[in-house]
Specification:
The structure is a single chain. The chain folds into two domains: 92 residues, Immunoglobulins (Immunoglobulin-like), CATH 2.60.40.10; 112 residues, no CATH class. About 11% of the residues have low confidence. The strands form three sheets. Strands 1, 2, 3, 4, 5, 6, 7 and 8 form an eight-stranded mixed β-sheet that branches. The protein has a two-stranded antiparallel ribbon with strand order 9-10. The chain is 34% helix and 30% strand. By secondary structure, it is α+β, with helices and mostly antiparallel strands. β6 and β7 form a beta hairpin.
């Protein structure tokens, strides 16, 4: 019986204390520190260039904000906006912790969250950038080769059916002015798809042709021999190579 009473008193005490502690935790003011990139490199926790430490949604009773790097004061801002602009070259390379402390009007300090970053030199950031760009260029080159090579391997010229242009739509060749289908997996270069004409081999960037453009090209296709072969001498091949440069 005594143990039951003790357990009851203990649970009652916990219930009474829990809301008070939760309320105290929720009412505790917080300072939200953000790191904004103005210009430079930033990725995988590493930064280089111009950045800004900023307090978002500052408390109304905030009097000033002190910004710290590894617990060392680097700036004191006395009015809103509470922000500090800096260049990473102003500090030593390596891992650092940014933080801030707000001082309320009554003198109460309010700590912010901490932001850990690795500061890079300009040469280090260039190496990091190259490590990202080179694989990206290789991927783009691979997509381009596949986009141009697959239609050739599939012999798109034989597969071409007048009036059927697939989900990517039809295009009109700027060289022979004949219609053809834009291959679905051809690279999309924003200005249009990078495609190869199955009739004359012209490589160009073509958008989806309008219905009237397709109709005009189909008339030309019907009046010509679509199975003709271009017989080119050495100069002709050079001309075809020059004309096969990418076009908008």
């Amino acid at each position: 019986m005594k143990n039951s009473k003790r357990f009851f008193y203990l649970m009652t005490l916990l219930i009474l204390l829990l809301p008070a502690s939760v309320h105290a935790q929720e009412s505790q003011p917080e300072l939200s520190l953000y790191l904004i990139r103005n210009f430079g490199y930033g990725g995988m926790g590493k930064i280089q260039g111009n950045f800004t430490l900023k307090i978002r949604d500052p408390l109304p009773e905030l009097d000033k904000v002190e910004f710290y790097l590894d617990d060392e004061l680097i700036a004191t801002i006395l009015q809103d906006p509470y922000e500090y602009k800096f260049h990473t070259s102003s500090f030593p390379d390596g891992e650092h912790v940014f933080s801030a402390v707000g001082i309320l009007i009554d003198g109460t300090p309010v700590e912010s969250n901490k932001i850990t970053k690795i500061l890079l030199s300009s040469s280090q950031s260039w190496s990091e950038t190259q490590g990202l760009i080179v694989p990206l260029l290789l991927v783009i080159a691979g997509i381009t080769v596949l986009g141009l090579g697959i239609p050739v391997l599939l012999n798109r010229k034989k597969d071409f059916v007048l009036g059927k242009y697939g989900t990517a739509g039809g295009a009109v060749c700027p060289r022979c002015e004949l219609p053809f289908s834009r291959f679905f997996f051809s690279p999309n270069l924003l200005a249009g798809k990078l495609v190869r004409c199955p009739h004359c081999g012209k490589i160009s960037i073509r958008t989806r042709a309008s219905q009237s453009q397709i109709q005009e090209a189909e008339k030309k296709y019907k009046n010509e021999d679509p199975g003709r072969v271009y017989e080119l001498d050495e100069q002709g091949y050079k001309k075809l190579l020059d004309e096969s440069r990418f076009e908008d």
